C-alpha cells in the first residue's frame, strides 16, 4: 500500500513536470485592505497599454485615514508623480503594490516595511493597485474580510456568552 502511494506521488510529479507546470505554485495572499473605506471604482483592465481603464481600486475613506502596507516588502518609490503622492512597495515574490493619493508619506525609497506598517495618510479618495511583472492585476481577489462565526443565542433570558472572535478570510 505504501509503495503504491510513493509510485503515485512520483508519477504525479513527473506528469506535472512533463506538462510544464513546474513547481507547486504559491498560495494566493490574503491581505487586509490598506485602508478602511468603501471601494467606489473597481479594477477595469485597459484594452491596450495606453487605453483607458482603472488599473487598481479606488476607495472613499473618512479623512484623515491611515494607509497600511498589505504585506512586508521594500519601498521602491515614494513621492510625487504628476502632482499626486504615491508609495510603491515591492514584495518578496516580486509583486508591487501601489498606494496613491496620499496626503502624508512616512517612508523613503529603500525602506523596509512590515505587513500592516503605516505608509502614510489619505484625505478622502485613495488608490490601491497591484502589478505582477509589468502587468496590472486586480488586487480585490487578494483582499480578505472579517467573518463572524455562527453561534446559538439563548432565548430563555440567560445571559449571552461573548461572541467568538471574527476570523480573517479570503474565501466567500
List keywords for this structure.
Glucose Permease (Domain IIA); nine-stranded antiparallel sheet; 1 helix; 11 strands; disordered N terminus
How would you portray this structure in words?
By secondary structure, the protein is mainly β. It has a domain at 30-140: Glucose Permease (Domain IIA) (Distorted Sandwich), CATH 2.70.70. It has 1 helix and 11 strands. It has one helix at 2-18; strands spanning 37-41, 56-61, 65-68, 73-81, 84-90, 96-105, 112-113, 118-132, 135-137, 145-147, 167-169. The strands form 2 sheets. Strands 1, 2, 3, 4, 5, 6, 7, 8 and 9 form a 9-stranded antiparallel sheet that branches. It has a two-stranded antiparallel ribbon with strand order 10-11. The protein is elongated.
The pLDDT mean sits at 83
CATH superfamily of the domain at 30-140: Glucose Permease (Domain IIA)
Oligomer: single chain
Radius of gyration: 21 Å
Per DSSP, what share of the residues sits in E-state strands of 2 or more residues? 35-45%
Amino acid at each position: 500500500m505504501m509503495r503504491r502511494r510513493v509510485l503515485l506521488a512520483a508519477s504525479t510529479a513527473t506528469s506535472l513536470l512533463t506538462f510544464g507546470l513546474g513547481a507547486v505554485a504559491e498560495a494566493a495572499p490574503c491581505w487586509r485592505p490598506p485602508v478602511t473605506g468603501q471601494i467606489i471604482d473597481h479594477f477595469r483592465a485597459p484594452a491596450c497599454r495606453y487605453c483607458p481603464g482603472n488599473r487598481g481600486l479606488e476607495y472613499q475613506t473618512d479623512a484623515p485615514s491611515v494607509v497600511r502596507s498589505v504585506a512586508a516588502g521594500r519601498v521602491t518609490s515614494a513621492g510625487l508623480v504628476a502632482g499626486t503622492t504615491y508609495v510603491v512597495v515591492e514584495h518578496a515574490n516580486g509583486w508591487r503594490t501601489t498606494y496613491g493619493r496620499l496626503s502624508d508619506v512616512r517612508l523613503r525609497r529603500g525602506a523596509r516595511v512590515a505587513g500592516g506598517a503605516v505608509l502614510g495618510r489619505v484625505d478622502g479618495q485613495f488608490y490601491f493597485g497591484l502589478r505582477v511583472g509589468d502587468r496590472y492585476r486586480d488586487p480585490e481577489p487578494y483582499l480578505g474580510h472579517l467573518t463572524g462565526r455562527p453561534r446559538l443565542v439563548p432565548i430563555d433570558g440567560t445571559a449571552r456568552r461573548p461572541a467568538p472572535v471574527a476570523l480573517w478570510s479570503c474565501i466567500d
